[in-house]
Amino acid sequence: MKQAPFEWRRGPRSNFSLGAETGVYALFLREGAVLPGVEPSTDGLIYIGLAANQNGLRGRCHFDARTRNHSPRKSLAVLLMEELSLTPVLIPKPNSSDTWGLDGPSDARLSAWMHANLELAIEVRPEPDGRETELVGRYAPPLNLTKCVQTEQHRRISQARAGVMAGLQGRRGLTASDNPGLERKRAKLASALANDTARPIRQASLSARQLVGADTDTAETIAARYGLHPKSYRQRLRDSIPWYRKPQDWTFAAGSNEWRDMIAVAEKMAHR
Predict the structure, then answer these.
(1) Domain count, the chain
(2) Report field, pTM of the whole predicted structure over 0.70
């Protein structure tokens, strides 16, 4: 009989000796812990993940990883940006879309917060893909930004993440040390987008866009504005845009022909 995630073996990450076994894992807020702007699912559940590659559960539980490669860490980062004084950094990828992560000290602070405030639960399974999809769809944890119905809470986190990316891309070629005050302002805005429960989605996405500049727009901010998942939107752009060239930055002047093509794709996806 299959058990629900909150019935799995659960505890601090230090209680687990994980190997290369595959399976499904869940992250929970410890009793008394608070994640700003988030209402957890059942029993403090905030994320369900899949460990199906050769590194197994050892490589996918996020507590001591780099944020650049892990979606739940990025979501935690935007929610805790101000509280932990985290500094986001742009990670250029010459052959694919850029991403972002945290600088070394910020990654360490986020990992320490996770060890102090989260618990881990695991279910070892030889073929975990379908099980993970089933559980995410059923419980819709707030940090799962795909495979489940996206609520206002999910969309707010996606918008905050898009805001961080837009801000970093807007300063391409500069380092954080060039203007630390501006970086802190961006971090505070990302945190505000994640925590502001009253602001409508359209208004929040426009605020994120202002990080880039009044005349510029990006795929991430367009996706947030239309409630789309950024990766799915970028893939649709690659499939639909005749002028696509790899690598494509997807940053254009608002009102340009390229921008209008991108908006048309977003509108089509949003109204399907």
Answers:
(1) 1
(2) no
